[in-house]
Amino acid sequence: MYNTPPLDSRSLALRRTVIRMLEGGRRGHVGSGFSVIEVVRVLYDDILKFDAKRPQGEERDRFIFSKGHGCLGFYAILFDKGFFPESELAKFCKPDGILGGHPEVSKIPGVEASTGSLGHGLSLAVGRAIGARMNRAKHRVFALISDGECNEGSVWEAALCASKHKLSNLTVVLDYNKMQSYSSTKEVLDLEPLADKWKAFNFAVEEVDGHNVEQIRSTLKRAPFTQDKSSLIICHTIKGKGIPFAEQNPAWHHKNKVTDEEVVELYRALEEPQKR
Questions:
Q1: CB–CB of 60/26 below 8 Å?
Q2: What value, to the nearest 5°, has the Cα angle with vertex 12 and ends 170 and 110?
Q3: Closest Cα partner for 236 from 202, 192, 188?
Q4: Strand order in 62-65's β-sheet?
């Protein structure tokens, strides 16, 4: 569907940060972490208002990372922006670290909500967007949700509420990698026609290559797409993007006991991205 450009040096560096966390914790949702990297990179490089030294500053935009199991990609950009020190990377999923298998708001600076129980993040984002309007605040609200998460009825209840209140201050990004924990979304519970479903819920919808930084950037900069609707961007991604043996491979949805050999292979896979 898309002619995705090769991963650039920044995307590769963020993926190496993910591998550093896997090397420390020896576990994690690998595929989901890699599929979101270009999206969170653009959000934090070009779109969101934030201050890593003042994570709770009132003027900040609110970003709800709803697909909490994909947190490795989220943590990579939070580290890159200085929300927590480098020493935490090696302590991923360890008792003395702050970085758990799902984001926790009470532990990690820059995390707006504890997520991972799928289907809740959009409701939280809708509430934040309504609150911002009631308080006449200028910040915007963003939520990143997953395709498998759209199996949850709570997602569509939240979408109805966003439509009712015409929340143009809300932008939803959907990571559409088309894979769930054990098979494709088409096999588990087909979502198509996905764009039409969201349009029927009165969202203004755009679709992009979720690994094309320029496409993501230009589209996010245009949000809100319509002044009386919430915006939704369907990002067509590849689960495990950047690691050929993990791409669209359910075995790499979540890994326990990551071995030294697997760590070496993960790093090696990023050395020659031009071949893909």
A1: no
A2: 40
A3: 192
A4: 62-65, 141-146, 170-176, 231-236, 204-209
pLDDT the model gives residue 248: 96
153-165 and 121-134 are packed helices; what angle lies between their axes, rounded to 10 degrees?
A: 20
| Domains of the chain, earliest start first | 9-270 (3.40.50.970)
Asked if 248 and 176 touch (Cβ cutoff 8 Å), the reply is no
Residues with Cβ within 8 Å of 263's Cβ and at least 6 positions away in sequence, in order, are 19, 22, 23
pLDDT of residue 272: 72
Successive 10-residue mean pLDDT values, the chain, 276 residues = 88 98 97 98 98 97 98 98 98 97 97 95 98 97 98 98 98 98 96 98 98 98 97 98 96 95 97 61
Distance CA 265, CA 272 (A): 12
Please give the structure tokens belonging to residue 270: 């990023």
pLDDT at residue number 3: 83
Q: How far apart are CA 178 and CA 184, in angstroms?
A: 6
Structural tokens at position 86: 């480098």
- The C-alpha atoms of residue 171 and residue 224 are separated, in whole angstroms, by 7
